[in-house]
Structures are given as C-alpha cells and as structure tokens.
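Before a colleague's protein record goes any further, I have to sign it off. Alongside the sequence sits a line of tokens, each denoting a local backbone shape. I want your independent view on whether this chain really folds as the tokens say. Where you disagree with what is written, explain briefly why. This is what I was given:
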Amino acid sequence: MSVSSVVPHHIAIVMDGNGRWATRRFLPRLAGHKQGVDALRRCARACAQRGVGVLTVFAFSSENWNRPADEVSGLMELLAMALAREVPQLKKDGARLHFVGERDSLSPKVRDGLGQAEAATADNTRLVLNVCFNYGGRWDIAQAAASLAARGEPITEASLHSAMGLAHVPDPDLVIRTGGEMRISNFLLWQSAYSEFFFSDRLWPDFDDSALDEAIAAYGRRERRFGKTSEQILSAHPDPMPG
C-alpha cells in the first residue's frame, strides 16, 4: 500500500536534537534552533502535500525555562524573528496557526506576536499547525480542571477533554520523537492515550521528507485497536491490514 493511502490525519512531533546538531558542528546551540525552524517549515509543507490535516509540534516546554538564560532569551528572539519571516508564507500555503500553552509568563511582545500570527492565518483550512509553546502536558490537564472548577462545571472525561489546549482538533494518530530519545517528556499526556509512537534517531534539523515518509509508513503497518480485539477490527474492516 502506498504511503499516501495510510497517512494519519493528525501528526504530533517532539522536535528534539537542535542543540546536539549544533554542538556536533562546533556551533552555538542557537544555530541548531535556527536550523530547527527551517526543518519545521519543510515538515509542515510536506505534511500538507501528503494530506495530513493537523500537525502539532513541541517547540518550547514549560521545563525549558531551566535552560541557560542566554539560550532562553535567544529562543524568544528566534520566535519573534520566525513569526515575522514565516507567517506570510504559512498564510500563503494555507496553514492555520494555533499556539498552545501558558501565555501569562510570556512578555507582552511575544504574546502580541502569537495573537497576530493566529489572527493572520485564521481563515486557512489546508493544514492546522499547532505550536506548543511554554507547554506541558501536566499543565494542560491542570488548567483544564481549574477552568471547569472556576465555572462550576462537573469534571468528567468529556468536559476535561473539551477544556484542553487541543480541543479544536482530534487527538493525534501518530506521535513522532526525533533525536533518539524514547520518552514523551510531558507532551500531550492526555491526547496521546491511543496514539501510535515512532522514535527516530535523526536529530530534528536532519528530519526530512524521507524521514517523515518512514514514520508514516510505519504507522500504516500498525493495527489500531482502541481496546478491541483484532477479530473485532477485522470484522468491522474486512480489508487486510497493510504489511
């Protein structure tokens, strides 16, 4: 079966390895993050070309504040530059930007930039690009529960789900982590309950179209049962699974 016939609707990516990519080349870590922005641009375009409807990426975690101050400040400057440079092209390419994460601790300049980018791309429908910035899965669950409690609403699975940062899109079908690590690092803890996982040894700046196709092909060979048996899946979908 061709890759195009088994593409997941929603792909989420932990974009890991920017700093190591730079270190191996005797470059400052921020140079790796700049290359990471280029890799994200390529990946978003490749996802749209393959029929992926939603791409969610882990850009800056709530734990990343613990990194050296100069790296954090550099990342904030890089975000501002990336927004100015990339948003016009994303708008032209039909991508709709959503930033997911805690914004109160961000500077007014950064908050304004995120809001302007979302507004500029609000009418696009080809690809939803969720950028998790100052995000953590535990934070997401806690803020959803706090929001429901503040409104006096009962906390159920359905209500909690509706208050999450990614309530506007279906849960990810496929979660990819680059850089050779095999953990999810507090990313989409709630939403990835039934996601398929793919771990790549490639550092994020080196993650290209062929690496994306490899992950999609691996996804296409999986049997997604959602708690059911293989027999139940086959009876509901008699066509043989790929692979």
